[in-house]
Task: inverse folding
């Protein structure tokens, strides 16, 4: 039994609104044009003024071109309209607001600087797919090359560049994979709000990500990034301008995540509707907020360390070079201060979405709601204390090995809480075997392996054996592919009907699930074997000893690819031809299911008043 | 079974859903504090970098580097790839002027003080004209601070050195960290100039009036934060710099 | 209320749990012995022991979760398009939560104490009078230098005497490399301008590998060399026969 809040008749009145001003002419295309124009101007100016015999010439030109691109893109897409209007005292009228929110613009608004959080959510779905697709193509390039010993299709330099760009694209994709689409599309409605706290900042975070993605992909055109995605100094000294595009992409991306983080937290803390106390919030909202807070802590380090690398390359500063008193380990520390919390920024939204799905699909409340929140918060808090476990074998600070081992192994406690909550929710549940449920079970199976292999690596003597080998690569792929990606696809299958009004094709989705699940086991179990046997990572070529495990890994990779292609097919066919789902196909109680599909422009005509959490499915409460 | 109570007021869609100023202010103030938190992380990381590199003094090069005497690259411009260069010597630099650092910080702090008075003029005395004038003054002072920061940047000690077959003007670790401190300060000051300009223009046009006084307070909050960071950085870099 | 079916399915669940635990323990024992390189040092030996121990500790946890998942998939699922009825709304179970947390803490403590113990036992650098080998990494090869009566013997293969503690002093000429002997379970980065140290005592005769584990550029995948653990006599004769310089 559902309650649907419908808008009173005649809510959306006139044709095209009158507001918007300059924004009426701005869109993705003008953004690109602006980016190219200002990028070219910056290129020409720096080309003219900087000495082209100097060592840093190409780095300087690349950096300034990137700055020009970013500024021009923002100008062209309309991101700077708001600040400029504020400056001259010409605030947005209601008509402007409605225009920016995309009122009566139809599909065109998806190509514009649109402030409607639901549009931003869909744009993030597209961006996630673009990044995952590009990263996935590179993965197939990597695994195809590694099908047998020796060099086959790409030479080493190309291969070495592929692995780093693959890594960075996938990391970016996964940072936004759950948070981007769903902390935007669904979260405000879950809170009972009409939009995010700062709708224009929302559009800014999305389009900033887009401009950063351009920079990152440009890396490939200028010699790529044959230094590994962690861009350690001093090997980065040997990287060409690809490194500068990378660093600028990160600087820009940090702005995107910071803005999104501010928006998420302010929305949850200040925009909840009447009666929506913090303890009545859907658990997904809590997870999104915790992940956003952690990201706000972590990404400034990334912003700083890439700025420092750019300065070392363009201005001959000495942050990381010993000749001037710098140290490579400083880069590693700053990087991992960001790098470890970042993996939990990636993981927590996926887990929070799965908590939500587990509850709805088993017709039971989230088990131990407070422990779930405590687990996510504890994980986030602890994660800021573990970074140097990535540096156990660097020789940087052997005396700190013990303390970091302690903090790292303590993380297994909040991680274990995730299983407690998931399993506790499912136990005695009436589990509805629909597509999201399959991916959720896949997550459970894979995350066990991911978590436990992490415990091995946190033990220093074991790490002395496995650091830098394919064992590590297999571990974190079980985390990112086996767990996060499964969570992201579960979330997609779950909320897809809210976005489109149609089910994601159940049959194709299940085929995709089984292919991907099998593929993950084949690929990454064989990769563990490669690691056990002693194959280091980032190897463009390997000896006969690792022949069989690599062959199997490649077969597995193609299986995953098949699974992903089937999923893509499912997404495309279901968009227009999928089975109609109605506004609340899963019979859930959180607010996003109470509004029509698609939700109207400002979600609610009448802001609801909340009297309990959304986890009552009808059965009497059991006191255990 | 619904947990939603649908008996609430109905608002017209096109009039907008008006929120009282306190609500908007509270939300924007939270945003500024969260942004300041991010800024704190960046600042802490820069302070850590300064103390770490100084503490390590890798190779003794916190304030020294092997290079060649002479202040400009142009001196050696015509020499190809290291030939004809004199023997490299160990060149020591001096810490940057403490008094100039405190001058810039003082000017920034002064602009913050003026903003404090401006905000008070608006909130307490309800004097929009006074507020506009004081905002303009604070903005101009911030511009002065920007100019002084650029001068500071020019005075960061460089050493002409040879690096991988090319000659460059390079910075030791000390100079490098000073560069990011000053650079960061410049970026923040530029934001302050933008904000101050906005306040002045908006107040003059009457867009920022007495009811919207909280917008001035938001700017004041950030402005004071920037002044605080300037004081912290000056205090550190003028007291802890050379190594004995 | 527990029906016969419930009892039967619960018994199956426990059997499944036990079987899966046993399976994982066996895997934990077999996998290192089957796939990992030959054990040639006490550090590597302890690493293998630790892997087996950690797997044994993790096995009941992993098996438990899998057994629960399989049990749920067998008994609690609803298929079809009709939404299943509401399930018992169990929001809290303090017994379960507390015992789960207590078990995680206990397991973590055991793992930590063991790990820190192994670390401490091996730590503190070399003890006796070790053979000092200077390891230099550069793009893309390893070179080794032995101190022998005031002379420096250089070599591109790493030969070591059996049962003598060796301390490696590792550095790099250009970028960061990773010095790793898989058979001996030791690894440390080679950094420019730094000397990092690790030690071990090879206790088996025979060949071993040296591989670079830190990405170092174009030919990172080829930065491998080999070494041989030989008897002391063989080692001394080999050393004497190498060209050296003072």
Result:
């Amino acid at each position: 039994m559902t309650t649907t809040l419908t808008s009173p008749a005649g809510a959306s009145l006139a044709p095209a609104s009158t507001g918007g001003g300059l924004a009426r002419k701005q869109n993705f295309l003008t953004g690109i044009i602006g980016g190219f124009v200002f990028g070219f101007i910056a290129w020409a100016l720096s080309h003219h003024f900087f000495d082209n015999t100097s060592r840093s010439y190409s780095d300087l030109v690349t950096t300034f071109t990137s700055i020009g691109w970013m500024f021009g893109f923002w100008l062209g897409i309309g991101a700077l309209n708001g600040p400029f209007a504020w400056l001259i005292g010409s605030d947005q009228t209601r008509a402007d607001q409605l225009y920016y929110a995309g009122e009566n613009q139809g599909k065109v608004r998806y190509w514009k600087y649109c402030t409607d959080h639901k549009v931003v959510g869909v744009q993030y779905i597209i961006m996630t797919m673009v990044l995952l697709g590009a990263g996935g193509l590179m993965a197939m390039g990597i695994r195809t090359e590694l099908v047998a010993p020796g060099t086959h299709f790409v030479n080493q330099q190309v291969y070495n560049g592929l692995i780093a760009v693959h890594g960075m694209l996938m990391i970016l994709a996964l940072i936004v994979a759950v948070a981007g689409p769903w902390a935007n599309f669904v979260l405000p409605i879950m809170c009972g709000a009409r939009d995010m706290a700062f709708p224009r900042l929302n559009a800014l975070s999305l389009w900033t990500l887009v401009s950063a993605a351009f920079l990152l992909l440009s890396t490939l055109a200028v010699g790529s990034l044959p230094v590994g995605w962690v861009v350690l100094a001093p090997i980065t000294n040997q990287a060409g301008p690809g490194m500068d595009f990378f660093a600028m992409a990160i600087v820009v991306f940090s702005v995107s995540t910071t803005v999104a983080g501010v928006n998420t937290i302010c929305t949850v803390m200040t925009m909840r509707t009447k009666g929506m106390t913090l303890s009545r919030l859907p658990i997904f909202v809590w997870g999104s907020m915790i992940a956003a807070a952690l990201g706000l802590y972590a990404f400034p380090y990334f912003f700083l360390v890439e700025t420092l690398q750019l300065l070392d390359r363009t201005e001959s500063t000495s942050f990381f070079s010993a000749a001037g008193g710098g140290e490579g380990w400083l880069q590693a520390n700053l990087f991992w201060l960001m790098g470890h919390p970042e993996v939990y920024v990636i993981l927590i939204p996926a887990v929070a979405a799965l908590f939500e799905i587990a509850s709805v699909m088993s017709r039971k409340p989230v088990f131990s709601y407070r422990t779930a929140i405590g687990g996510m918060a504890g994980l986030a808090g602890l994660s800021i204390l573990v970074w140097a476990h990535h540096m156990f074998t660097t020789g940087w600070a052997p005396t700190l090995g013990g303390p970091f081992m302690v903090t790292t192994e303590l993380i297994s406690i909040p991680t274990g809480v995730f299983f407690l909550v998931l399993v506790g929710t499912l136990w005695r549940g009436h589990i509805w075997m629909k597509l999201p449920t399959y991916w959720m079970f896949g997550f459970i199976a894979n995350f066990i392996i991911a978590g436990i292999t992490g415990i091995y690596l946190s033990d220093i003597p074991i790490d002395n054996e496995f650091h830098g080998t394919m064992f590590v690569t297999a571990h974190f792929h079980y985390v990112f592919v086996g767990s996060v990606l499964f969570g992201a696809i579960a979330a997609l299958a779950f909320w897809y009907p809210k976005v489109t009004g149609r089910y994601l094709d159940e049959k194709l989705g299940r085929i995709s699930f089984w292919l991907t699940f099998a593929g993950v086991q084949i690929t990454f179990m064989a990769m563990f074997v490669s690691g056990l046997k002693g194959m280091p990572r980032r190897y463009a070529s390997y000896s006969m000893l690792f022949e069989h495990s690599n062959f199997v890994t490649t077969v597995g990779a193609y299986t995953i690819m098949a699974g992903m292609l089937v999923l893509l097919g499912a997404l495309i066919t279901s968009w227009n031809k999928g089975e109609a789902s109605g506004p609340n196909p899963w019979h859930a109680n959180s607010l996003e299911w109470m509004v029509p599909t698609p939700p109207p422009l400002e979600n609610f005509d009448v802001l609801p008043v909340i009297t309990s959490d959304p986890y009552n499915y009808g059965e009497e409460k059991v006191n255990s | 079974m619904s947990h939603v109570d649908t008996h609430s007021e109905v608002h017209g869609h096109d009039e907008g859903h008006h929120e009282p100023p306190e609500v908007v202010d509270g939300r924007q103030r939270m945003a500024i504090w969260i942004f300041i938190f991010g800024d704190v992380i960046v600042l802490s990381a820069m302070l850590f970098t300064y103390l770490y590199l100084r503490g390590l003094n890798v190779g003794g090069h916190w304030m020294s580097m092997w290079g060649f005497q002479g202040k400009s690259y142009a001196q050696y411009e015509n020499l190809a790839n290291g030939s004809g260069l004199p023997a490299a010597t160990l060149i020591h630099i001096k810490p940057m002027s403490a008094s100039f650092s405190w001058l810039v910080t003082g000017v920034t702090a002064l602009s913050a003080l003026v903003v404090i008075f401006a905000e008070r003029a608006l909130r307490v005395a309800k004097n929009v004209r006074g507020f506009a004038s004081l905002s303009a003054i604070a903005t101009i002072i911030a511009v002065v601070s920007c100019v002084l920061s650029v001068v500071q940047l020019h005075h960061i000690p460089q050493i002409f050195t040879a690096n991988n077959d090319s000659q460059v003007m390079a910075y030791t670790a000390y100079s490098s960290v000073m560069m990011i401190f000053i650079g960061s300060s410049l970026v923040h000051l530029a934001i302050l100039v933008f904000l101050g300009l906005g306040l002045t223009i908006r107040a003059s046009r009457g867009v920022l009036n007495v009811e919207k006084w909280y917008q001035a307070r938001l700017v004041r909050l950030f402005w004071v934060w920037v002044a605080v960071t300037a004081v912290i950085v000056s205090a550190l870099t003028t007291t802890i710099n050379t190594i004995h | 209320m527990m029906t016969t079916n419930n009892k039967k399915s619960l018994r199956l669940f426990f059997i499944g749990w036990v079987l899966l635990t046993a399976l994982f323990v066996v895997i934990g024992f077999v996998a290192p012995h089957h796939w990992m390189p030959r054990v040639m040092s006490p550090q590597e030996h302890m690493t293998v022991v630790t892997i087996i121990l950690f797997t044994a500790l993790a096995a009941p946890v992993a098996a438990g979760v899998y057994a629960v998942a399989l049990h749920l998939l067998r008994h609690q699922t609803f298929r079809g398009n009709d939404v299943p009825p509401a399930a018992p709304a169990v929001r809290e179970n303090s017994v379960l939560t507390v015992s789960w947390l207590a078990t995680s803490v206990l397991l973590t403590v055991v793992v930590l104490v063991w790990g820190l113990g192994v670390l401490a036992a091996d730590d503190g650098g070399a003890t006796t009078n070790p053979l000092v080998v200077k390891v230099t990494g550069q793009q893309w090869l390893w070179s080794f230098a032995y101190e022998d009566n005031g002379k420096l013997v250089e070599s591109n293969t790493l030969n070591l005497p059996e049962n003598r503690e060796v301390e490696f002093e590792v550095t790099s000429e250009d970028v960061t490399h990773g010095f790793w002997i898989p058979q001996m379970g030791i690894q440390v980065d080679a950094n420019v301008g730094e000397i990092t140290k690790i030690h071990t005592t090879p206790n088996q005769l025979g060949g071993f590998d040296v591989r670079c584990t830190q990405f170092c550029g174009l030919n990172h995948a080829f930065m491998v060399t080999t070494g041989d653990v030989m008897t002391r006599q063989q080692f001394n004769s080999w050393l004497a026969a190498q060209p050296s310089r003072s």
